[in-house]
């Protein structure tokens, strides 16, 4: 396909002129400048993330956004993920507004490259991940203790190691806090739901004659759920094509997939239902699952963090951190069902009416019973008469499917640092972290018990209905007709499941930093350097219970044990060399370079794999005059495969699919496609009647690969920072970025596999056709655990993103009216390229969303803040803009806009208003309104995109589903 990119200048003219005239956003600054917004405007530089060299006269050349704690608190943030999702360099990751696909954590996704490519640090060091994907649960980082957040976008592996392909998020803690601070906040939506309560206490002070300092912070947060049934726009599952009420074919009536000829259907549908008397009737309509699902997940978390330093000698300092967090998140989806798993049904089943048995045994379609049947006893005379059916029955009698995720993490860090000379220092540390992740999956059904309970018979002695196999306390289950399952039968087939994941991380590191013993004749300062090593080991053991391992869970699928670990030795060096200083047209010219080598060894179940990779960067900055600096970097970054990627065995699950070429009438009249559909598993008699994806979902198979290789990226950034002397308080930065990733570890999109098989390979023995396993009963891609599309991981994909960041900060006094801080942070995305394999098309997802472009990626997005401070009063107005987003298949030219009721999500503006007032210097009261104008999300339908992102007919993580929200808080300091 042809790839088109937008014209940035046109976008600036369209959106920028009015914005710049108003003034500009977010406490975001670049190139080492502290964001303002305090009582005293300060322009002093700070040491920022992006370099290990700690010298105040040398600044990081990577674009850096600095987010200050005052602004974070003013926006009512209780989980830092809530704040980070709104910065223009990011798209929303997993968080409170994710239900399907939420595994109990909160993540950040820079540049829409996936959270696995964003490295999370606390005080410059890795935080312990919460699962085997290496993700950090941002809920575990105490918001009350954050001093600032520094965000580096673009590759940073030469400085920090693996995972820093999209960038780095570094949380700087308040290690110098003095006194006692108590904070409480309460929030609630205008509609009276979504309550959130947050409490924290922080205490700090010096000891041992000021040689030591300690800080302790503890916090508690509890949040209530909001269901999709609580909002009109998400109350019903709507089809993207015409907004007709839809839902799941698995209904409480019980449905037989009738694509085989033996079930006549007066309505002409390809499935039949049961009425309450066990009669077969035309398909009764889909089941609306939306009201049960969540728009906001409930949460309860505890955090505790202790920081301490102690001056051992004049030149040696001990530092430490101990972190603890317990975070519990619950997701809720509609009641489970049998979901067209293959069942064996006995035709002498007393729950079946004579009419139903007649229909089920009319093998030749002549309307006559083809099995000997006794209408008086309502039994088939041949007791061995059985049929195999693909059976769907929703089971509301069992209750909603709840997933309860509890992450308990702790991390201990200890180290020593000191000075060797006035210009040379050292640092050595060790840290250990462990996360126990308990997953409880509630209210599913056992496939084996459902099958056993379905095969009911009439006891010839007592006349009672019993199980054909009465072992294990079997209770007969009347699946045929809504409301026919007794409470006892529901208890028999229902069960809960559990999985425990243990993740450990051990890191030992050391470094030297200081000045090299020379300076160039053209410079007035010596070169600086940093060099050191890191040893890191990560291990994960995932232990699902037997029912998950055996695939006996119908509604939650299956899970497989993981036992994997890796260890890596890394050595790094970095230098900054002033080439020219204080010369005409060269106030400063500095070379910036770094290199890192990493030696990996993976171990999965005793099988090992080793590899070595190199990362590096080279660039610099040039200040022709003191007001202007021009910076640029080339960086090679890597991401080594994580523990899940190397250790997860083949695992049945569910995925997304728009269209199945073998479904419905698609293959009819096309001899080649018909032959290929049959060769890939469609029964010949079902051609023309195969059911398509159910609510955009099909079965799939996930899995890792112990021989995966690291991803490699090339990052280019070039930009300028303008800080004019004639306008004190003004800082403007403009940066171009390009991040290209090759050898990407990818899970093929299910649609890509299907399309590759039926439109590119067209060979049943080809690589992609071999990844397709159809339901043997009806040819669909839904059914038992042996049915689905294999999307196990491979090194095959290519990703690239390209765009421009613009940041403007301007702070000035208003004479007797206080001060005004204006800030603007905007990103214009030129391209977001995705290619699953080198023979597939390259898709540009900039400005698109759907089943290929999963997370909406607006081409232009910005956040603008205006903060007015007058004596003890602070008022903050935040404005977030998201450009329009189009359905991906429309953007690719594969479908027409007329195929969708809402093919484009229009641009969106959100405004948040907050005020804080300090009383008697010790007490600060704050109140705010988020989504000030109560903007409602644009409805696109449930099958517009992937189910992880597109839920409740909307994109709830990108577009606010809760509506106008009020919060009130108070802080007391002593």
Q: Could you explain how this protein is built, in words?
A:
There is one protein chain. With about 950 residues, the chain is mostly beta strands. It has a domain at about 10-230 and about 295-335 and about 405-420 and about 435-440 and about 505-640 and about 710-750 and about 790-974: Maltoporin, Chain A, CATH 2.40.170.20. The protein has 12 helices and 48 strands. The strands form 9 sheets. It has a 22-stranded antiparallel beta barrel. It has a 5-stranded mixed beta sheet with strand order 1-6-7-4-5. The protein is globular and about 100 Å long.
Task: Please summarize what this structure is.
Pfam families: Plug (PF07715), TonB_dep_Rec_b-barrel (PF00593). With 974 residues, the protein is mostly beta strands.
| CATH-assigned homologous superfamily of the domain at 8-229 and 295-334 and 406-420 and 434-440 and 505-641 and 710-749 and 791-973 | TonB-dependent receptor, beta-barrel domain
Q: Briefly note the CATH topology name of the domain at 8-229 and 295-334 and 406-420 and 434-440 and 505-641 and 710-749 and 791-973.
A: Maltoporin, Chain A
Radius of gyration over all CA atoms, rounded: 30 Å
Number of helices: 12
Strand proportion: 35-45%
Name of the CATH first level of the domain at 8-229 and 295-334 and 406-420 and 434-440 and 505-641 and 710-749 and 791-973? Mainly Beta
């Amino acid at each position: 396909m042809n790839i088109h990119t937008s014209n940035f200048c046109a976008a600036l003219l369209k959106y920028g002129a009015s914005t710049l005239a108003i003034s500009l956003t977010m406490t975001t600054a670049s190139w080492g400048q502290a964001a303002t917004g305090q009582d005293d405007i300060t322009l002093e530089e700070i040491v920022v993330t992006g370099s290990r060299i700690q010298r105040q006269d040398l600044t990081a050349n990577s674009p850096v956004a600095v987010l200050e704690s005052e602004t974070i608190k003013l926006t009512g943030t209780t989980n830092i993920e809530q704040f980070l999702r709104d910065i223009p360099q990011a798209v929303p990751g997993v968080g409170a507004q994710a239900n399907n696909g939420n595994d109990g954590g909160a993540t950040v996704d820079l540049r829409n490259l996936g959270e696995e490519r964003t490295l999370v640090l606390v005080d410059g060091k890795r935080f312990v991940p919460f699962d085997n994907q290496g993700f950090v649960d941002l809920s575990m980082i105490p918001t009350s203790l954050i001093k600032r957040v520094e965000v580096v976008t673009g590759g940073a592996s030469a400085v920090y190691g693996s995972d820093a392909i999209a960038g780095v998020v570094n949380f700087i803690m308040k290690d110098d806090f003095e006194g006692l601070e108590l904070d409480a906040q309460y929030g609630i939506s205008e509609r009276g739901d979504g309550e959130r309560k947050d409490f924290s206490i922080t205490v700090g002070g010096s000891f041992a004659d000021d040689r030591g300092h300690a800080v302790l912070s503890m916090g508690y947060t509890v949040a209530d759920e909001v269901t999709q049934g609580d909002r009109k726009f998400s109350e019903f599952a709507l089809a993207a094509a015409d907004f007709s009420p839809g839902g799941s074919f698995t209904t409480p009536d019980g449905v037989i997939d009738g694509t085989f000829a033996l079930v006549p259907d007066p309505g002409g549908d390809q499935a039949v239902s049961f009425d309450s008397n066990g009669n077969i009737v035309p398909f009764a309509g889909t089941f609306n699952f939306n009201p049960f699902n969540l728009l906001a997940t409930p949460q309860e978390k505890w955090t505790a963090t202790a920081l301490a330093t102690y001056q051992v000698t004049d030149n040696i300092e001990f530092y430490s951190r101990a972190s603890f967090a317990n975070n519990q998140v619950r997701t809720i989806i509609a009641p489970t069902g049998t979901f067209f798993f293959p069942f064996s049904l006995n035709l002498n089943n007393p729950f079946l009416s004579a009419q139903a048995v007649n229909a089920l045994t009319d093998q030749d379609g002549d309307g006559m019973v083809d099995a000997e049947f006794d209408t008086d006893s309502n039994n088939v005379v041949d007791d061995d008469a059985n049929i195999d059916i693909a059976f769907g029955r929703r089971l509301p009698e069992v209750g909603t499917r709840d997933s309860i995720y509890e992450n308990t993490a702790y991390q201990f860090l200890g180290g020593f640092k000191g000075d060797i000379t006035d210009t040379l220092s050292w640092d050595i540390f060790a840290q250990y972290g462990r996360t126990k992740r308990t997953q409880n999956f509630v209210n599913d059904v056992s496939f084996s018990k459902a099958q056993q309970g379905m095969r009911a018979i009439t006891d010839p002695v007592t006349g009672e209905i019993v199980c054909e196999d009465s072992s294990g306390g079997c209770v007969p289950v009347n699946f045929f007709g809504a409301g026919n399952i007794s409470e006892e039968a529901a208890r028999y087939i229902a069960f809960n499941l559990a999985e425990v994941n243990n993740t450990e991380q051990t890191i030992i590191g050391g470094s030297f930093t200081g000045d090299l013993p020379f300076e160039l004749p053209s410079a007035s300062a010596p070169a600086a350097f940093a060099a050191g090593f890191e040893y890191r080991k990560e291990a994960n053991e995932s232990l699902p219970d037997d029912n998950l391992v055996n695939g006996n869970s119908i509604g939650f699928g299956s899970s497989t044990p993981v036992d994997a670990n890796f260890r890596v030795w890394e050595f790094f060096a970095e230098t900054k060399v002033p080439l020219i200083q204080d010369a005409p047209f060269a106030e400063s010219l500095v070379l910036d370079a770094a290199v890192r080598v990493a030696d990996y060894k993976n171990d999965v179940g005793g099988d090992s794999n080793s590899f070595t990779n190199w990362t590096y960067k080279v660039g610099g900055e040039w200040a022709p005059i003191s007001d202007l600096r021009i910076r640029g970097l080339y960086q090679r970054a890597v991401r080594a495969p994580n523990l899940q990627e190397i250790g997860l065995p083949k695992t049945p699950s569910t995925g997304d699919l728009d269209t199945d070429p073998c479904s419905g009438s698609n293959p009819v009249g096309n001899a080649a496609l018909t032959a290929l559909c049959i060769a890939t598993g469609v029964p010949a008699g079902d051609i023309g009647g195969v059911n398509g994806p159910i609510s955009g979902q099909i079965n799939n198979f996930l899995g890792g690969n112990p021989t995966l290789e690291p991803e490699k990226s090339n990052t280019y950034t070039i930009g300028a920072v303008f800080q004019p002397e004639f306008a004190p308080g003004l800082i403007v930065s403009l940066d171009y970025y390009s991040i290209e990733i090759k050898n990407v570890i990818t899970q093929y999109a299910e649609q890509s596999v299907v399309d590759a098989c039926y439109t590119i390979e067209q060979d049943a023995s080809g690589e992609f056709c071999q990844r397709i396993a159809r339901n043997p009963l009806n040819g669909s891609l839904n059914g038992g655990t042996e049915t689905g599309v294999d999307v196990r991981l491979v090194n095959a994909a290519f990703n690239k993103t390209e765009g421009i960041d613009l940041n403007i900060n301007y702070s000035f006094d208003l004479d007797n009216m206080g001060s005004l801080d204006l800030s603007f942070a905007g990103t214009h995305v030129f391209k977001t390229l995705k290619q699953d394999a080198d023979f597939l098309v390259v898709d540009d997802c900039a400005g698109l969303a759907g089943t290929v472009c999963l997370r909406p990626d607006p081409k232009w997005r910005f956040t603008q803040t205006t903060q007015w401070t007058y004596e003890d009063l602070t008022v903050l107005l935040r404005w977030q803009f998201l450009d329009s987003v189009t359905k991906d298949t429309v953007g690719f030219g594969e479908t027409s806009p007329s195929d969708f009721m809402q093919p484009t999500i229009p641009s969106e503006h959100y405004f948040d208003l907050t005020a804080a007032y300090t009383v008697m210097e010790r007490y600060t009261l704050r109140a705010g309104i988020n989504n000030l104008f109560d903007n409602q999300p644009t409805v696109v339908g449930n099958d517009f995109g992937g189910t992880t992102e597109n839920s409740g007919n909307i994109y709830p993580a990108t577009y606010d589903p809760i509506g106008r929200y009020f919060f009130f808080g108070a802080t007391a300091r002593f």
